[in-house]
Write a structure and sequence with these properties.
The protein is α/β, with parallel strands linked by helices. 41% of the residues lie in helices and 14% in strands. The structure holds 3-methyl-2-oxobutanoic acid. 3-methyl-2-oxobutanoic acid binds next to strand 6.
Length: 256
Amino acid sequence: MEFQERIRRKKSKEKIVVLTAYDYQIAKILDGTGIDLILVGDSLGMVVQGHSNTKSVTLKDMIYHTKNVARGAKETPIIGDMPINSYNTKDDGLRNAEQFLEAGAHGVKIEGNRPEVVRALIDAGIPVMGHVGMLPQMAETYRVKGKKPEEAEEIFRDALNLDRLGVFSIVLECMPESLAKRITENVKAPTIGIGAGKHCDGQVMVINDMLGLDESFKPKYVKRYAHLNEVIKNAVARFVEEVSAGNYPDDEHTYH
Ligand code: KIV
């Protein structure tokens, strides 16, 4: 069965679990966990490259990271996040989505309601994940979207449009849970929430956020499942101590 059909069949039955990955080693770890999808997100602009948003991420960056992830994930389908300006026209979208597939992705994600691009990709047999709500490629500031009724209606309409076009899932980012519930109940495609509450058909999280790599970044929806920042700092402190004291390398770690 094609992966998008497996994802679709989970709607309202089993929750869908998605995490981001940007490199080989994390992809290899995730591959053994049974999660449903790996997203090579353009969030790498922040967590890998150190920018304050995703607007400077290029197609070349995304293809590079997708190739690295594909070397690590042998079982889990990979979704490549199309970066800003890579789908301004349907021809750009098609050409660039093909590059993701050549790099090892199984589908692509597109932000916002871009019917002509989404239709062209789906017609070409490329699985598309939609994305509505807070759209980092367009947003001036990152804030919850859809609190105002007009904004909520627009997001709702965009989700219905994407669903009609045949996307295999829709990311709902940073919105009140009542809006996410209404969308989830009215679309055939499974919804994957991030900051959109418990009624979505699945959840996606940026791996660096759930692992606690940057303790200073903590939006309300992020739950820490580990504190790797502390783990790394403690390990480095021990290394510094042992090297400084001449205790590393000891006999066990030396060739004779
Ligand atoms: O870039 C990304 O990681 C994303 C997820 C947060 C959905 O778009």
